[in-house]
Design brief:
The structure holds 2 protein chains of 2 kinds. By secondary structure, chain A is of the alpha/beta class. Chain A has 5 helices and 5 strands, in the order E-H-E-H-E-H-E-H-E-H. Chain B starts with 11 loop residues before the first helix and ends with a helix.
């Protein structure tokens, strides 16, 4: 499958797990970043079809990066992938515009189902950035 | 309600709430680990260190013991530092299973892949524990990894005290042990784990107020 997927995680091990799962699902157009600064640059340049985003990065510890990416591309499809499984934080992320939230550790099938669902979902009407604050 | 009484003992109601919270937290953390390595992990009931005593004195039974320590900073509604101490042997087994490579103790802390796996395991354990705290208290808690290393317990405990200036007399120390049962061999072994939370001065009260 040709959809371009950006994996954002500071742990190489975590990126490898996601990459392996995606490869088993037939997704092989993968790009990776490990910090917020690189992510914003790569996200703007590469315009991925889907971004799988960890919360905790060396230069990001909350939902700021999610907000920043949605400022760059309000219609972007972003799935959060974090060990932080707190209901309040999951709700915050979804309210901000994340399409889904997968808590680590995850089952491969769970990840693939969510990725497929989000990729097939029609793009929502463009939201005004102000509404996401 | 104040977390500590005048005699520096933890308030019994606070201790009871922390016990329940720790039980659920460690249960969640071990469930996450079990899912990662596909083996059964059972836990012993946690023991909450009940006094406002210097943490360095409380863990004196571990003096000189080699362990793996992971330090994380807390953010958002709860500020402070968390130190997770795990048996080094357990962590090595875990990393070897996750990566499919047999690392020596020395290699494990030098290799990028194994180091990355250690950080991920620690992150998942601490985050699962914080998920339990959040579900009981309604607090949002973010975690940022600061340090991972193998050293004697004394040195690992000294890290947040000396480098991050946490108050060694203002902490919650939870001791637990867990048993791992191999899926195929049915061999079992028991490991010791500690989670030490150093909430900043106002956060301990925030935690207690939101629990009670």
């Amino acid at each position: 499958m040709n959809e371009k997927i950006l994996i954002v995680d500071d742990a190489k091990f975590a990126r490898t797990l996601v990459k392996k799962a995606l490869a088993n699902g037939g997704y092989d157009n993968i790009i990776e970043t490990a910090n917020a600064a690189d992510t914003k640059k790569v996200f703007a340049e590469e315009k991925p079809d889907l971004t799988i985003l960890d919360i905790t990065l060396p230069d990001n510890s909350d939902l700021t990066l999610l907000k920043d990416l949605l400022q760059i591309a309000p219609q972007a499809k972003i799935i959060m992938n974090s060990a932080i499984g707190q209901t309040l934080i999951i709700a915050d992320a979804l309210k901000l515009g994340a399409k889904n939230f997968i808590t680590k550790p995850f089952e491969e099938q769970e990840l693939l189902q969510v990725v497929k669902f989000v990729l097939e979902e029609p793009a929502s009407p463009e939201a005004k950035p102000d509404e996401r604050k | 309600m104040k977390p500590f009484q005048k005699d520096n003992q933890l308030n019994p109601d606070v201790a009871d709430a922390l016990y329940e919270l720790s039980n659920v937290g460690i249960g969640k953390a071990t469930t996450a680990l079990s899912k990662m390595i596909d083996e059964r992990i059972t836990i012993q009931t946690p023991v909450i260190m009940p006094t406002k005593t210097d943490i360095r004195k409380l863990v004196k039974s571990y003096h000189g013991k080699l362990s793996m320590g992971i330090v994380m900073r807390l953010g958002e509604n709860l500020g402070g530092v968390v130190l997770v101490l795990i048996d080094q042997k357990f962590m090595k087994d875990l990393v070897n299973k996750l990566t499919g490579t047999q690392y020596t103790d020395e290699q494990m802390l030098k290799n990028e892949e194994s180091l990355s796996a250690i950080k991920e395991v620690a992150n998942i354990m601490a985050a699962s524990y914080m998920t339990a705290i959040s579900s009981y208290t309604g607090l949002r808690i973010y975690l940022t990894p600061v340090m991972v290393g193998v050293d004697i317990v004394d040195a690992l405990i000294a890290y947040p005290i000396e480098k991050m200036y946490v108050n060694p007399k203002n902490c919650i120390c939870i001791n637990t042990s867990f048993m791992v049962q191999g899926k195929e061999t049915k061999n079992t072994y028991t490991c010791q784990g500690n989670i030490v939370i150093f909430p900043d001065d106002s956060s301990l009260q925030v935690l207690v107020d939101s629990m009670m």
